From TrEMBL:
Pfam families listed in its UniProt record: Fer4_15
Name assigned to this protein: Ferredoxin
Family matches, as InterPro entries: Fe-S_cluster_ET
Keywords per UniProt: 3Fe-4S, Electron transport, Iron, Iron-sulfur, Metal-binding, Transport
Signal peptide start and end residues: none
The organism's place on the tree of life at top rank: Bacteria
Species assigned in the record: Streptacidiphilus cavernicola
Residue ranges of coiled coil: none
Upper classification of the organism: Bacteria, Bacillati, Actinomycetota, Actinomycetes, Kitasatosporales
Cofactor: [3Fe-4S] cluster
Length: 63
């Protein structure tokens, strides 16, 4: 699974990191650091929760 974060839509709510702070890395003020990355095996459920929790719908997941 791959995560794509639209950095222009990210508003720094940090809800993705609340789902899994190791997968969704943020800068010092709560914005996503990486726009695209592979979701580690076993973290798919947390990635889905993070995508669903994002109020800006900035996270999309692909298999």
């Amino acid at each position: 699974m791959q995560a794509h974060i639209d950095l222009n839509r990210c508003s720094g709510h940090a809800r993705c990191a609340a789902a899994d702070e190791e997968v969704f890395q943020l800068d010092d003020v709560g914005y996503a650091l990486r726009a695209e990355f592979d979701v580690p095996s076993g973290a798919e459920q947390a990635a889905r929760l993070a995508a669903a929790s994002c109020p800006e719908r900035a996270i999309t997941l692909t298999d």
